[in-house]
UniProtKB/TrEMBL annotation:
A single GO cellular-component term on record: cytosol
Gene Ontology molecular function, alphabetical: L-methionine-(R)-S-oxide reductase activity
Pfam families on file: GAF_2 (PF13185)
Limits of the GAF domain: 29-148
Protein name listed in UniProt: GAF domain-containing protein
InterPro entries: FRMsr_CS, GAF, GAF-like_dom_sf, Phosphatase_reg/MetRdx
């Protein structure tokens, strides 16, 4: 399992994941296809997650995009919940316990921790990468760093 890897092996695994994303994306131009494969790849790669997907910025709100997991909230207002906060602050939200996060939007009651990486394209809001886990404190600074790199790699193809 991924979480049982040594720190060094986790870094190598994340670097390989980013290379796999690039290989899957290099000849594809359709954004839906790119985001669908990107969410599927993460869902396959990460342990102890129950939702992996994207919300896209449309008409001043986040709208559900390609994802892996149970049905989700379709629209999230600017500044609301973890996803809306990530967009408002334009920085990754690493939440150890979503139940302690003010204004958390509970799409899946099984989720206990979350990481949300804002996606900016040419300085403009594009959306967010949202990953939930049923495990409290599931995500750490290593996840944050490499998921931000994952998003940077993905942006090159969007």
């Amino acid at each position: 399992m991924f979480e049982q890897l040594t720190y060094s092996d986790r870094i190598k695994a994340y670097e390989l994941l980013i290379k796999q994303l690039q290989a899957l994306s290099e000849d594809e131009k359709d954004e839906t296809a790119l985001l669908a494969n990107a969410s599927s790849l993460l869902n396959q790669f990460l342990d102890q997650v129950n939702w992996v997907g994207f919300y896209l910025w449309k008409n001043d709100e986040l709208v559900l995009g390609p994802f892996q997991g149970l049905p989700a909230c379709v629209r999230i207002p600017y500044g609301k919940g973890v996803c809306g906060t990530a967009i408002k602050e334009k920085e990754t939200q690493l939440v150890a316990d979503v139940h302690a996060f003010p204004g958390h939007i509970a799409c899946d009651t099984a989720s206990n921790s979350e990481i949300v990486v804002p996606i900016l394209r040419n300085g403009e809001i594009y959306g967010v990468l949202d990953i939930d886990s049923p495990i409290k404190d599931r995500f750490d600074e290593t996840d944050k760093h490499y998921l931000e790199k994952y998003v940077e790699a993905l942006i090159a193809y969007l």
